[in-house]
Each structure stands twice: as C-alpha cells, then as structure tokens.
Amino acid sequence: MAFTATNIFQLNPGLIMHLRDDDDTSQCNSRNRHDSLHPHSIHSRVDSSKRFTPGDPCVVCGDAASGIHYAVAACNGCKTFFRRVVLENRTYSCKNNGDCIIDKNMRCSCRHCRFKKCIRVGMDRSGRVERGT
C-alpha cells in the first residue's frame, strides 16, 4: 500500500500532532565537551513493526522519544534535526576527533557527530512515515 498524506491520516488520526515543527534549538547549550562514546549510549535499531511505548528513550540522545520516526524511537529534536539534514542536504564537520558524546545534554554540541549517530542507530533517510502510540 502506498502512503499518501490522506491515507496516512485515515490510518492514524493521531499523526496530526506529530506534524509540529518542534526543534530543540532553545534547549541546546553552547558547551563543547569532548569525550568518548559510552557503550550504554549506543542503542540498536527499533523494529518499526514494534509498538511505541510512552517513556521509551530516544535512541540518538536518550531523551524521551515521541514515537517511531525514520524507523527508530526518536525525540522530536532528533527527528527534526535528521529531517532537516536530509532534506536540505546539509553537511557538518567535527571540531574534535569525530567521537563526541551525543546525549540529552550534549546533543547540540556537535552536529556532525549527532548525524553520524542518527545513521549508526538506524535512522532511515527514506523512512518518512511517522508513527505514534
């Protein structure tokens, strides 16, 4: 079945709330910390057939996920960040060694490492259907 804007909303009317252009810019701080990635911060790809459970963590930064976005459980900030990078074909470089910590507090400190982690945890550039609860 092909997904169009019309039939997606018919299948899941709750999707309308996911269309807000939420961004975490106001939550970003200017601290620049360089640490190695911790094993507990690496999450595996979420099966898109799995139901989203409120309280699940964002697999990119560990904040509260808002749903399954681009094939993984992600928060609105990481969802919006990933969408903008892909749609606008943005590129970033890391000022450190390419291994910055990307967590709830540091997700805005390095866009290069944040996008790299989005890809590593399984965010799918073609996964445009967003699913909530």
UniProtKB/TrEMBL annotation:
GO MF annotations, alphabetized: DNA-binding transcription factor activity; RNA polymerase II cis-regulatory region sequence-specific DNA binding; zinc ion binding
Stored Pfam families: zf-C4 (PF00105)
Highest taxon listed in the record's lineage: Eukaryota
Cellular location(s): Nucleus
Chain ranges of the Nuclear receptor domain: 55-130
Keywords on record: DNA-binding, Metal-binding, Nucleus, Receptor, Transcription, Transcription regulation, Zinc, Zinc-finger
SUPFAM superfamilies for the chain: Glucocorticoid receptor-like (DNA-binding domain)
Chief location category: nucleus
A GO CC annotation given for this chain: nucleus
Keyword Acyltransferase tagged: no
InterPro entries documented for this protein: HNF4-like_DBD, Nuclear_hormone_rcpt_NR3, Znf_hrmn_rcpt, Znf_NHR/GATA
PANTHER family listed in its UniProt record: KNIRPS-RELATED PROTEIN-RELATED
Family, as annotated: Belongs to the nuclear hormone receptor family.
Protein known as: Zinc finger C4 type
Organism encoding this protein: Trichostrongylus colubriformis (Black scour worm)
